[in-house]
Amino acid sequence: MSARFYADLALVPGSTVSLPEQAARHVQVLRLQPGDALTLFNGQGDGRPGSEGEFEATVEHMGRSEVRVTVGAYSATAREAGRAIHLVLGMPANERMDWLVEKASELGVASIQPLMSERSVLRLKGERADKKLAHWRGVAIAACEQCGRNRLPLIHEASGLAEWLKSNSDAAAADTRLLLSLQPGTRPLAEAVAPTGALTFLSGPEGGLSPAEEAAAIACGFRPVTLGPRILRAETAPLAVLAILSA
Ligand code: SAH
User: Which residue ranges does the record assign to the Ribosomal RNA small subunit methyltransferase E methyltransferase domain (predicted)?
Assistant: First the structure.
């Protein structure tokens, strides 16, 4: 497979385009030459609703910073997971969140909603929140380039858990909502999920969710499930869910 690059552009076979800055830099780093083949994806496929394939492309011109490529054939290849899995999670601090975004993207996550909850270590707002969000979206793009996904996972702005529950309180929502819980007597994940259909998982930060937060989530339609008797780290638990359900 030739090197893959995300380009947030409408791509049309036969046209020549200038790659966006990030992809151009990446092509420069790989020292591709005119005539070399690459693969481009834009998350929108060829523009038809629901299409999410990729395009062959050939390097046309390597400038000092500009890279022009000719777009070739479109192939309607999709490498998405069989079901949509959404993660709503207490953000782990430091580079653990980067790690989570990368691995979750590889494992096919549909969306990630970072949360601040009572016991969160990481609190983000303003410019710092915007920077982090842009950084995580970049991590997801790199993961999709690497693993062959042509659709980027959606990464939402960080929100407080209470606010998120308030604006997503529809207990009759179409998705199945599951709360990753350490409470004794909780039902195992495998018993709680139907074989198909969208799923939304809520999991806690390093310090876990408070009993009041768990109760609020349950009131919003989340049903508690366990991943077993060991306490998994805040980034391990959601990744385990994706691995279990996408295998
Ligand atoms: N220090 C916290 C642990 C938090 S682990 C405590 O002892 O309560 C971080 C989050 O991962 C938890 O809030 C929970 O949502 C999830 N989690 C970890 N291990 C789990 C397990 N075995 N089953 C279900 N959820 C788990």
Answer: 83-245
